[in-house]
Amino acid sequence: MTTPRRTTPREWMDHLEQTLEAFDETGGHRVLTQVFDELGVEDALSYVVLPYLQEVGERWSAGSIGVAQEHFASNVLRSRLSVLMGADERPEGPLAVLACMPGEQHEFGLMATSIVLSRLGWRTCYLGADTPTAELALTCRTLQPEAVVVAARRATAFAAHAPALRRVARTTPVHLAASGANDDVVQLCHATLLEGDPVQGAHTLHGTLGESASGLDESTAV
Fold it and tell me: Domain containing 45: what range?
């Protein structure tokens, strides 16, 4: 018997383009269900969902799709990822606070990190896009998490708020994520660099803090 050919990530991305950018919400959700079922949550995020979102932004910047199409596709994917966030977290797991730096609106990568941490047994407090550093600090003082993950696409976003991040880092390990994070701003902010894509970043954080904090074993993650 011939084994059915698996759909490639590029083909899944094309299916999302054909549905979501045609304002077909039902079709888009159907494709997302299929891709998550076939690839699993983490591979679906790394190889289909996040690359597709990047392409949507590039097509919008190039003028090949309109703002309505970009907003529609983003909103459907945001709603789907929101359902996955916290779905598998355990009440006894270590806690991570996740936030985008002030002015940073691109939150999908941070949402993916939150989803994967949840699947690894963490609890997450997700503050989302454009989070004031004062609010981040207040959240950390209140919750006393094991880790803070902050994301930005530009290094200047971290550098501009380095004093506030250094203050947070006095009591809570701070991890910088996304394309704006580099060795220079990590040193400036007294933080740690989360390298790789958001899925890899979550596994890195879990490897350095999760197991020591709670004895969690990645092999038990659903």
Answer: 9-84
Within this chain, do residues 114 and 216 fall inside the same structural domain, yes or no?
Answer: yes
pLDDT band at 208 (very low <50, low <70, confident <90, very high): confident
Q: Is 23 left (phi over 0), alpha (psi -120 to 50) or beta?
A: left
How many residues in the chain? 222
Residue showing tokens 């879990």 = 206
**Got the DSSP string for 109-137?**
HHHHHHHHHHHTT-EEEEEESS--HHHHH
| Token output for 170 | 């006095």
Residue 43 sits in a domain whose CATH number is 1.10.1240.10
Q: Structurally, how many domains does the chain consist of? A: 2
User: What are the pLDDT digits (tens) for 100-154?
Assistant: 999 999 999 999 999 999 999 899 999 999 999 999 999 999 999 999 999 999 9
CA 156 – CA 59 distance, rounded (Å): 25
